Amino acid sequence: MKNLMPLIERNQTNGISQAEEERDRIYDLFVQVASSQQVEILILKSPPFNSPPWVQVECWTRHPTDSALTLRSTAELTFRPREFHRYPIEIDIKVSKDRRWRKWQSVVEFDVSHAETVLLYMLYDYSSYTFPFRRCRLSRLQLWLPDNKPARLGLDPRALAVPALFVVGILTLGFPIIGVPLLGAGSILAFLNYRRPRHVLSAGKPSQEPRSLIRLDSWQALVRNLGAQRDVVKRALTEELTQLSEGSFVMAEEKIWYWGVDGKEEREQLVVRFRRGIAFVHIYKYGNDLFVGWDAHVNCGTWTETVSAQGYDKLTQALCAVHTIAADWHVPNEYDITDTNCLLERVHAAVTKVLKIKIAEHKIDQEIDFKILREARQQIVGRQGSEEASVQGNLRSRLSKLVRVG
Question: Pick from 169, 205, 173, 209: which is nearest to 189 by CA?
Fold first, then answer.
């Protein structure tokens, strides 16, 4: 049976996944360059499945005689996927220094020398007004730049034949036996071209939806004198949740970063997904005590398609439109809430089982309240957008403000 379902294929070769690989590569380049320059700077990157991916670099150069005086610089790099094009990733770079800023769009090459140039410029050690970025055209008039066209698309012979037949037919109207048939053939070919089907060329979408989360329920507890068993508890809970990893239940471990009181901090968390439900499980050691908790969310992020180019496919000799994907908002329904309820109940059951076993094994005299903290659900179904989604979408600007305040 042929699969004709109207679903975008999930794979690892889609534009967003490639853009995230490029993001990680350039993030590592800035880490490498900062280490070689022996400077400690703030380097951030977008969370998983964020569209478009980005990298942000921020540094404050202190005055040699007064450390309270600083020159502040910020570099923002945004990665735009260009599926099936000559250059699959275009990078937009904006560097702000003091009251000045420089911007380069559609950069198609970025290596360690470019990262070093950007960092030296931010550190006021690069005074040249020229930067060695290779860019592609933003408009047809920029003939000195390479054109980033889809590699598979070319000139359509049948489309070119229509004006050719009309021009020759008009020029030969003095010879009706030649001109009239040519005009008729041009009209027929134009009609047939109009009736030709146009295929869609899509590179697919990532394994997960973009994250625009609405918080639902949560639970947490601090278990005394169990901190030394943190790895044991985490392993037992992972094994318990792995038993749920069938069908649409998926569990993974993610390393996340967030803005702490004195800079960037990193942690690890377990992520359990079921359809549009997503739960984050936290297991952290605080001295001799162990914090265990989880929070569940309805994910209202979804991928949507937009047309990035269209023309004649040289491989299949068919008309096609090249589609790219971008993040959009999914209006939640009651079934999304039901799926999330199912997910959080199963996660809570696993956490409860593991903790009760470990508390009994170590004879910890402590009463744990396993009651879930419920949140209201009335305003979730049918929601067209949320402040949380807006905050997540504007994460870079918020972090930049936090850096300046900090």
Answer: 169
Q: How far is CA 95 from CA 248, 317, 401, in A?
A: 42, 44, 16
Q: 3-class DSSP state for residue 403?
A: helix
The answer to whether 134 touches 107, Cβ cutoff 8 Å, is yes
- Sheet (strand 318-329) strand order: 153-154, 301-313, 318-329, 198-202
Residue 245 pLDDT level (bands cut at 50, 70, 90) = low
361 CB-near residues (< 8 Å, 6+ apart): none
Task: Compute and round to an integer the Cα radius of gyration of the chain.
Answer: 28
pLDDT given at position 399 = 47
The C-alpha atoms of residue 307 and residue 218 are separated, in whole angstroms, by 40
Which helix (H) or strand (E) segment is 405 a member of? helix 395-405
Number of other CB atoms surrounding residue 72 within 10 Å: 14
Give the chain's count of helices (H) and strands (E): 8, 15
Structure tokens at 214: 């609405």
Element (H, E) at 166: helix 157-171
- The model's pTM: 0.80
187-235: pLDDT as tens digits? 998 988 888 898 998 989 998 899 999 999 999 999 999 989 999 999 9
Distance between CA 61 and CA 42 in Å, rounded? Answer: 12
The number of residues in the chain equals 406
Concatenate the DSSP letters of all residues of 185-207 into one string. HHHHHHHHHHHS-EEEEE--B-S
The SS3 of residue 316 is coil
How far are the Cα atoms of 18, 248, 289, 305 from residue 200, in angstroms, in the given order? 20, 28, 56, 11
∠ CA 300-302-306, nearest 5°, is: 145
What DSSP element (H or E) covers 347?
helix 334-361
Neighbouring CB atoms inside 10 A of 314's CB total 14
Six-digit token string for 86: 């000559």
